[in-house]
Amino acid sequence: MNSKIEELRNKAMEKYRYSDCDGDNNHGIRLNEEKFALLIIQECCRIVNLWTDEDSSEDDEDVYQTKWIKKTFGLI
After folding, report:
1. Strand partners, 17
2. What pLDDT score does 53 carry?
3. 8 Å CB contact between 66 and 48
4. pTM summary value
5. Any idea what the Cα angle at residue 12 is, between residues 6 and 18, rounded to 5°?
6. Least buried of 23, 26, 61, 75, by fewest C-beta within 10 Å?
7. 28-74 residue pLDDT tens
8. Which pLDDT belongs to residue 55?
9. Maximum CA pair distance of the chain?
10. Angle separating helix axes 3-11 and 33-55, nearest 10 degrees
11. CA pair distance 75, 68, nearest whole angstrom
């Protein structure tokens, strides 16, 4: 797995409690898929901002591109 994806995956892990068939409370850790997806989208927006800052003199272009990404995934 790509190290960046693994880093984002680790950030999206969360603790949870569950009861087993004996009624005992147990603790585990699982991937919060929604948080993982959000972290990936945020990282993509960050990369777009880096690229457009280096390649463009127009400040509005990177804002437009990141808004388009966020709109595509229903974040705005």
Report:
1. 27
2. 63
3. yes
4. 0.71
5. 125
6. 23
7. 899 999 999 999 999 998 888 887 765 555 556 667 788 888 888 88
8. 56
9. 64
10. 130
11. 10
For residue 60, what are its two tokens? 């509005």
Nearest Cα to 63, choosing from 39, 76, 45? Answer: 45
**Of 65, 68, 10, which Cα lies nearest the Cα of 36?**
10
CB-CB neighbours of 38 under 10 Å: 15
| Residues 36/12, Cβ–Cβ less than 8 Å | yes
Contact 26, 19 (CB under 8 A): yes
Length of the chain: 76
Q: Has residue 15 got a pLDDT over 80?
A: yes
Tokens of 69: 């990404």
User: What CA–CA distances, in Å, run from 44 to 23, 30, 31, 39, 72?
Assistant: 43, 23, 20, 9, 12
Mean pLDDT value across residues 20-32: 84
